[in-house]
Amino acid sequence: MTYHEEEKKELVIKLRNQIRQLPAFCYEYFRGIEPTTAERTRLGYAYDLKIFFQFLLETLPSLEGKQMNEIQIEDLATVTPMQLEMFLDYLTYYNNDAGDEMQNGEKGKARKLAAVRSLFKYFYRHQKLPSNPASLISTPKIHDKSIIKLDVDEIARLLDQVESGDKLTKKQQVYHKANKTRDLALMTLLLGTGIRVSECVGLDIQDVDFNHNGIKVVRKGGNEAIVYFGSEVREALQAYLKERVQIIAQTGHENALFLSMQKRRLTVRSVENLVKKYAQSVITLKHISPHKLRSSYGTALYNETGDIYLVADVLGHKDVNTTRKHYAQLEDARRRDAAKAVHLRKED
């Protein structure tokens, strides 16, 4: 199996395990939405619906003493809009199965409400529910946050640190010496293409094409795309591949582009830790993650071109409105600049 096939398999297995814990009617729901949703989306819905059903068990008198898998579709029909509002309030602080206290902000509440809405919408459309109270609930307002990104000087300092490692601890410097070329190639690739960290770790050696300076990535939803890179990325990748071809990877990881010290494909978590390690040694006032590197690239590309459609295409956003939402602050700044550019009368 390829990396992406293995990933899909793991998601399917996790989803099946979650569905077994949910009410029986949920099986029909997840089968019904399969053609229009990705595996990761369905798994997220399963986790969120589990929280919703736990809330119902704790609040509906008719479910007192019952287990989650004993909830019937008829019980769902008794849920009112007020109880759904109470669910959103419940999400602020609650205890999970392990007894740990969990919290949700606006985004977490909105995501879980989306899962509940999807469930009610499905069974209402299929005439299994007499009404759809979830459609009456407003999505929690999500306040815009400033884009956290690196400026040109910060990017240069970050890459310099990846090369030198002089601000790392002595223990970190031992690993740095062994992985410097790999780390520089990986960081340069993220900063120079804006690909997602999941797309990065999924790269195989044969996905890199130096004849056209491009890489083949698998986007969200499973679609393949070619992302092109510049000379700096090319040089960093070529330097790393000279070392990579000498490494004998573990079985099942022979084609992986980026390998760990254990000669296995790097994971998303390991790349997140790698970025954090280098960034916090030179950039102290910003929390930098791989996604922030992606934002930095998107911002730089938009500033250079002013073409929001190009940015959406390169970043792999299916809907340009997603891109516009993320970079609305930049568009507003450009509109302000445009207002200053036009003069109705010559100035003395």
The run of helices and strands is HHHHHEEHHHHEEEHHHHHH
Mean pLDDT across the residues is 91
What is the CATH homology-level superfamily of the largest domain? Intergrase catalytic core
Strand order of the largest sheet: 3-4-5
Look up the CATH topology of the largest domain.
hpI Integrase, Chain A
Number of domains: 2
Number of helices: 15
Which of globular, elongated, flat, extended, rod-shaped describes the shape?
A: globular
SS-based class: mainly alpha
Low-confidence segments: none
Q: Radius of gyration, Cα only, in angstroms?
A: 24 Å
CATH architecture of the largest domain: Orthogonal Bundle
CATH class of the largest domain, anyone? Answer: Mainly Alpha
Biggest β-sheet, characterized? 3 strands, antiparallel
User: What fraction, in percent, of the residue positions are helical?
Assistant: 55-70%
Strands, total number:
5
The termini sit apart by 72 Å
What does this structure look like?
This protein is mainly α and 348 residues long. The protein folds into two domains: 3-136, Tyrosine recombinase, N-terminal domain (DNA polymerase, domain 1), CATH 1.10.150; 152-338, Intergrase catalytic core (hpI Integrase, Chain A, Orthogonal Bundle). It has 15 helices and five strands. The chain has helices spanning 3-21, 26-33, 39-59, 73-76, 81-90, 106-125, 152-164, 170-193, 197-201, 231-244, 268-282, 290-305, 308-315, 320-326, 328-341, and strands at 93-95, 101-103, 208-209, 214-218, 224-228. Strand 4 and strand 5 form a beta hairpin. It is globular, with a radius of gyration of 24 Å.
